[in-house]
Amino acid sequence: MCEGPPIGEETRPAYIIPRGNIMVVGGTYLLGDTNMEITRDEIKKIGNDARTLLPSLNIDYSNTWVGLRPSREAGIRTDIVRRQNVKGEDLPIFNNFGHGGSGWTTFVGASKATVDSITEYFNLSTEWRSKM
Hints:
Distance between the termini: 44 Å
Strand order of the largest sheet: 1-2
Order of helices and strands: EEHEEH
Mean pLDDT: 85
Strand content: 15-25%
C-alpha cells in the first residue's frame, strides 16, 4: 500500500519510460520549486512509486537529474502576441508554452494549434498538412 494519495494523480505523478537499454523513472509535482538538485526524499518517493508500477524493476540511482516543467495556472498558451520591431513593423510571436508535466502528452496537439496559428496568420496553404 502507498503512503499518501495513490500514484498517478495530478499531485503525485509516476512514470516509467523505456529509452534504449535504460528505463527512465520519475514523477514529482512541486509547485513553484526551482531547485535543480533532487532530494533524498524525492529519490525515495520516485523509486517506491516505480516499484509499485513495476515490482521487478531494478533501479540504479547513480544517474539522477531534475527536469523543470514550467506550467501555467491558466493552462497551455498557444496564442499570437503582436509586437513591433525597432522599425515599427508588426512582429508576430507565436506562443507554445506552459505544458508543465504534460508536455509529452500534449505536445502534438499544442504544436498543431501553433501551426494553425502560423498558417492562418501568414495566409498559407493547408495542402501540406495531409503529409503530417
